[in-house]
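User: Reviewer 2 asked us to show a designed sequence for the structure in our supplementary figure. I'm pasting the structure tokens here. Could you produce the per-position amino acids so we can include them in the response letter?
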């Protein structure tokens, strides 16, 4: 009986937490579905990200000068302005940016 009560309370706690996230949103009033447009168990699509974030504004904000011009994560030599957002960004867990897999330059302002 004690195990059953524990399981029931745990399930109630999880349901309450999930409902609070759904109603309140966990990031600026967003719900999970606002970003997870392809289903809750899949990564958000770039379209979901770009519905709030403008790629031209991001490219301008992360622009570099001179020989470092193409080291812009939002407008780079490999992908231009079409780098998949979730290759570098994740909300639930920190992520290493895509460029770090091959390059050693640093992005000190990288928001994981």
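Assistant: Here is a per-position design you can include in the supplement:
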């Amino acid at each position: 009986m004690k195990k059953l009560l524990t399981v029931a309370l745990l399930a109630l706690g999880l349901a309450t937490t999930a409902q609070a996230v759904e109603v309140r949103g966990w990031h600026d009033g967003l719900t999970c579905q606002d970003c997870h447009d392809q289903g809750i168990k899949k990564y958000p699509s770039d379209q979901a990200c770009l519905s709030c974030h403008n790629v031209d504004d991001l490219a301008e904000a992360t622009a570099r000068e001179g020989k470092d011009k193409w080291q812009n994560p939002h407008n780079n030599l490999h992908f231009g302005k079409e780098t998949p957002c979730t290759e570098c960004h994740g909300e639930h867990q920190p992520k290493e940016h895509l460029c770090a897999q091959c390059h050693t330059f640093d992005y000190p302002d990288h928001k994981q």
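For the response letter, you might also mention the following. Residues 5-25 have pLDDT under 50 and may be disordered. The first strand starts at residue 71 and ends at 72.
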